[in-house]
Amino acid sequence: MRVYIPALLSDLSVPLPPVRGGVLCVPDVAMSGEDVEVLEDDAITEAALSSLELARESVGAAPARLVLAVDTPTSTTLTPGDQIEPHIFAAPAFEYTWSDVAAILADLPDAAPAVSAVLEASTQEEADEAVAALWESSLAWFDRSERPAVLAMHRG
Questions:
Q1: In the chain, where the domains are located
Q2: pLDDT tens-digit series, residues 104-137
Q3: Are 38 and 86 in contact (CB under 8 A)?
Q4: 67 vs 105: CA distance, rounded Å
Q5: d(Cα 111, Cα 64) in Å, to the nearest integer?
Q6: SS3 sequence of 114-130
Q7: What strands lie across the sheet with 22-25, from one edge to the other?
Q8: Adjacent-strand bridge partners of 101
Q9: What DSSP character marks residue 72?
Q10: 142 forms bridges with which residues in the sheet?
């Protein structure tokens, strides 16, 4: 089962990835591959929003959305939590290693001003407008082996 876990750029520099709740999709068996891809994208979007919340709550967090696509270890059984939207659920926190991370989804540095606008918004209206502008920037896909490169890219 793949879980999308919100993260901070600083999480990429530690020996073990963060243990926190995430988002997962539970497609119907009758869904087409394209429908499943849309669900996965929706789950990634929810996790990216959560990464913004993490960054906003963390002092000195780098301005970037970051999502870890984690394939749960075979010893882990997850029960989907609250439904966020149809077929999209909260996932409980679980332990995993970097080898369980299938991909790192992260903003490129040129999205930093838009992320900063979200993090610095002082009203809900400002935040909504900033998030809408930020969604013009897609998350880039990186292999887990590229953790150092993702960090270096954001350090300038």
A1: 2-108+140-155
A2: 999 999 999 999 999 999 999 998 999 999 988 8
A3: no
A4: 5
A5: 7
A6: HHHHHHHCCCHHHHHHH
A7: 83-85, 88-91, 22-25, 2-6, 66-71, 101-106, 140-142
A8: 70
A9: P
A10: 104
DSSP 36: H
Locate 15 and state its tokens: 């020996």
**Rounded CA separation 6/105 (Å):** 10
CA 1/CA 79 separation, integer angstroms: 11
**Where do the DSSP E strands lie in 7-124?**
22-25, 66-71, 83-85, 88-91, 101-106
Q: How far apart are CA 142 and CA 134, in angstroms?
A: 19
Query: Residue 72 and residue 24: Cα distance in Å, rounded?
Result: 11
Residue found under tokens 């075979």: 74
Tokens of 57: 């709550």
For residues 18 and 5, the answer to whether their CB atoms sit within 8 Å is yes
Q: Does the reported pTM lie above 0.85? A: yes
* Cα 15 to Cα 132: distance, rounded to the nearest angstrom: 34
Nearest to 115 by CA among 154, 72, 76: 154
Q: What is the C-alpha to C-alpha distance for residues 112 and 109, in angstroms, rounded to an integer?
A: 5
pLDDT at site 156: 63
Question: Could you count the other beta carbons within 10 Å of the beta carbon of residue 17?
Answer: 22
